[in-house]
Design goal:
Helices cover 23% and strands 30% of the residues. It is built from three helices and seven strands, in the order H-E-E-E-E-E-E-E-H-H.
Length: 185
Amino acid sequence: MRLPGRYDGVARPIVTYGTDPVLHRRCADVTTFDRELRHLVLDMFASMQAADGVGLAANQIGVDAQVFVIDCPDAEGNDVVGYVVNPRLTVLEPLEDEPEIERTEEGCLSVPGPYAELDRAFRARVDGVDVHGDPTSIEATGMAARCLQHECDHLEGTVYVDRLPAEQRDQLLAEAAGPQGDLPA
C-alpha cells in the first residue's frame, strides 16, 4: 500500500541491537487506526530514507507496533514500495524456474556496518491492513522478498544476526560496535 507524501515525515533515530528491549520482543498489534498511526508510517519512511535503508520496522525507531515500511527492488529490479500494519508473512512456492531459497548478504540498520550471508525464501507475501484498517498485501521476489521476511522478523523480536551461529553473531556485533563500543558486543 502506497502512502501519498510518504517521505514527508520526520526522521527518527534508529535503535541499535541491545540498546532497547523493544527490538528484542514481539511488537504489539495495532488496534487504533488514526492520525497518529499515519504519522508513524510517514516518520518510518523518512527514517528509512535518512538511514539509507530499504526497509524499516516500527521497533527500529523505538515504537512497539506491528508496522513496517519497504522501498526495495525485487528480483526483476522493480521497486516494491509500501507498508503493512499487523503483517502476516507467507513464504510462497517458487514459480517456474525460480529458486526456493536464495542465499545472499543481509544487513540491518540496527546492526550498522556488517553484512552476513543468510538463506531466505526467494518469494514471499505479507498480508495485513493499511492505516485505515483496510486489507492490503505485498508479494515480492528476490531482495524485496528478503526485506519482507527481515522486517517481519523484526516485529517478532528477531534481528537477522539472531539467525546466525553464536560465534558469527558475536563477531558481527563486535564489528558493529567498533572501537567506540556503540553496540554491546
